[in-house]
Fold these 2 entries.
Entry 1:
Amino acid sequence: MMTKERMDSIKEVLKPKIVEKLIGEDKVELRGDEVVLKGEYYKKQVRIALKNCDIVDPTNIEEYIAFDGYYALYDSLTKKKPGDIVEEIKNSLLRGRGGAGFPTGRKWDEAYRYQADKKYIICNADEGDPGAFMDRSILEKDPHSVLEGMALGGYAIGSDQGYIYVRAEYPMAVKRLEIAIKQAREYGLLGENIFGTGFNFDIELRLGSGAFVCGEGTALMESIEGRRGMPRPKIHRTAHVGLWGKPTIINNVETLANVPVIINKGYEWFRGIGTEESPGTKVFALVGKVENAGLVEVPMGMTLREIIFDIGGGAQDGKEYKAVQTGGPSGGCIPADLIDTPVDFESLGKIWSIMGSGGMVVMDENTCMVDIAKFFLDFSVEESCGKCVPCREGTKRMYEILDRITKGEGVEGDIERLEELSETVSSASLCGLGQTAPNPVITTLKYYRHEYEDHIHNKSCPAKSCKPLIKYFIEDTCIGCTRCAKACPVSCISGKVKELHVIDQSMCIKCGACYDVCPVKPIKAVSII
Amino acid sequence: MQVTINGKNYDVEKNTTILKACKDAGIEIPTLCHDDRLSPSGACRLCLVEVEGWKNLHTSCTAICKDNMVIQTHSDKVIKGRQEVLDLLISNHPLECLTCEKSGACKLQDYCYEYGITEGTYRWEMKKPYFDSSNPFYNFDSRKCILCGLCVRVCDELQGTSAIGFENRGFETNVATPFNEGLINSTCVSCGNCVSVCPVGALEPKSKEKFRYWETRDVRTTCSYCGVGCQMDLVVKGNKVVDVKPAFDALNEGLLCVKGKFSYNFLSHPDRLKRPMVKKDGVFVETSWEEAYNLIVNKMKSVKEYYGSEAFAGLTSARCTNEENYLFQKMFRAVLGTNNVDHCARL
């Protein structure tokens, strides 16, 4: 059985060794008494959910203990009542990091007060947004923080069984979780009579099979129960009637990773970070056409500018920054002139986007917004479960319209049709997937309507990205270096050395290779029209 | 509890769905995927209503009434929502009403008429066609399927067979048997309850008769195949039974088995005996009921006199009612004086 004394001795021996080793490798520095990762990229970051990532060895439970791991669980089980934990989380105003931002404490309170012979706690690790890997990092690099968060949740609501629903496409996360659960059981931190308090709690893994919609809470429960992952009608709260009809709390990985830290440091500390209504931090996967792509954890309320430019280093290759998409396929595109918007649940909602699970896709001047809307909608079409009509049929029709527009086949009335369909799909769909699927279309129509109009009326793509609408052409400034002709994969460029080259338009596949290699400066001889 | 529906106040019981409250109040709400006997699904999104204070439209089949709820069932927003849903459905549905057997009893057809949807705005890519005619009693045509899920749920929740389910996702979703091996190779018992609940022409009996529902009349009767006493409506065109519908207001609650649902062709079969036959000079000839009964009674009497009661044995049928079977054994025991009596359902 694990005891406080044993944890203290592990911490005392191990922590200095780890810190010494990491400082020796020049990986970390001390910020007060906190050990944080070193480097310009991490300077503006505040890491709570990711605090142990790249610092502790995820396959060694003792390293997690050395960094205050399982102390929150010990303190709670030995000194606090379940109701106290619920109150603490309620007071912290921690909001669900999976996307919707529902207050975690209120959710827990519902299950805590609901009488039942069995309750469940589920960790939703079915992270599926394109380009998002926040949860994956936590699971792979700090799995014990999730296990501890779940055990705390279990104690708070009165549950003795947890499930982690993790996607099978994360083999490393699955492996690390298996190791972590095994070690936690060996150390008596999962299983029966934890810390000798009589509290029992165990966790099992359930692997997803690749359906994005299984990230939706009720579809996830259907999947755990062995049925096809389709959302349930929302008649009852899952905190009352959830998995196998029992009260169930379902929280996202990042949310759970926040819990032990809040219990350790107190809700006042937590509320001191971030904004009043959205306290704490949020992890973002900063990807796309950005110089420094990667995971960032910043206090809520930091502006997009600080995240994209100060941490991310702005658009790649010196190109002009155009927009950022937050919230994945359910989110919205935020134009450059709104870059000073603070990133929190309320502020993003006001400009028609969402926080989502934390995807942040940066776009530059060559990104066509119609094409982007089409890209995200294609994802929703593919991942719709097919149950309800607006999502199954509506997103498909929206995709078809967008596809025509990007091919130069858009017709008068397409924009209005898109708007009508967006309204139907978002207001009449069964679950969050359908209700939010039109968001990329709604926001691009709102901020970049002129791009849609250009595609439809002028058959041109202002970002010069939609292939059927552009042509590559060599100007008189060509120096006849022959590089373009050599780079062309279909050999459709002809011309002698030091003479003007010509592209055979009938053969050109518009791959852009000639444009990329053209050395003429300051304006390339290859132009896109 | 009290709710306001379309400006009028109604008293409702706790845990009543909005759909039920509206139905009780006599307000018609269109549904394609709802069935009182099955768990609510919320798939078709046609029963949308507007609830004051709620952002989105809600499906009335899955929303529970709350005290002082203010509900609009036919506001402009609701009508528009339903029209869009129907438009999306009919856009991906073959417009074959002229030849479709279901025409006249098709809910999609009725609702499109009610809501003024003519042909579908989005007639672009259509569902991939898949036909399954392997079952001897009914056909499945995926093109007409609107994926309401009633067939899947009735097979699972009421019939308890779970022979069919959904395959694929999104636009590619289809109702199918495991591994797509066809209905004949599935666990399907051909009860036809899926056919009975299908709101469109996706599941249709293999009918030998051409008929339109408006040419027919329903005749309520008791199924004669066994003693359960399932009630059903024979769909009669002229003087011929062309289809069978299970009765909902009876003990079988809208269910039938393969015999009740599909086995009615014998009714007008040319080989069917319509009068008693008596063998004369080695050939069966038609006779009157009186002559036939007299013959039976006389033979019974003479056999009993000559050989005794134990010479008799009676075998009756499970297709008779309990009352008929009772009378049969009574006749053998009390009149003929033997216990040699049994019936075919002992198998």
Entry 2:
Amino acid sequence: MIYLTLFYEFIKTGLFSIGGGLATLPFLFQIAERYPWFTVAELVNMIAISESTPGPIGINMATYAGMVAGGVLGGIIASFAMAIPSVVISSFLARGLQKYKDSKILKSAFYGIRPAVCALIAMAGIGIMKEALFDLELFKVTENIGDLFKIMPIIIFVTLLFFSNKYKKHPIFYIAIAGVLGIILKF
Amino acid sequence: MGKLWELYITFFKIGISTFGGGYAMLPILEREAVEKKGWVSVTEVMDYYAISQCTPGIIAINTATYIGHKVNDLLGGIAAALGMISPSIIIIMILAGIIQRYSALPIVESAFSGIQIAVAVIIINAVIKMYKNSVVDKITLGIFVITLAILLFVDIPTIAVIIGAFIISLLIGRGQS
């Protein structure tokens, strides 16, 4: 029953994603590995679309992944499952918000979870770089070190990294440029 | 019913005009919920946002639930959260449908192979920013390095990492106070 599995996986993701939309990435990578729903390459496309459209990234990702896995109903179920822990926990906390605001437990928990989440997202970033910049499949066949690197993508990566830190434009800007470069250069 | 509908529509508007959620949402949230509707104060919005960041779930949905809850209790919170997720569901479904239909076209394929590079850049930048905000001393540096080392060599569920970090934080928190 794909809908039940979707519901379970995404309610889990919603419950344990702490610290923003990208915190859902490590979960989505594990979903991509565990189920035949979508590949890592498709997941990277989903991130691009979710970054370039309105709405919270976490919900965009859930809708997209759910839809690829189980059609329109799958998309709706995944988004609701992703939002349910937020609504339940926040409704519960809302009653005594002032009490929790300065809670030592909450603050000290957050203090240690954030660097761990940062490491988790860094791993997801490494996974995306493997997909976009390296050709492990070809390298395994030819064992030629030159085949391991996708030269043009690596040049574009370094250039974009430099300019995005210098000019700090919205992600959509860089996604659009990279898309156009992909079409022109056909790598 | 009128209040719930108003909450739903207002958060629908906030959802549809926010690119990227999180911090990008705050100015629009302040304009709609504070200035136009007078539901909450700027300080309350900042408090909600701060708590939303360190509780589980999607920050934008958490914040919406708090504001909705203040206006109209449990149902208000649900209406606001539903308003926030509705635009995402509609827009992404339409786009995902279109992209799935045309994803096999060579031009779409090469566009996405370029876009993947931009996504790698976006994630790396996000990680750098997050690193600067979260790794603030020797303990947090230790947690970051150990987590990364474990993840590089062992295939461990994400939940186990979060729960482990949570327990370690509580132990350290106790030690400090």
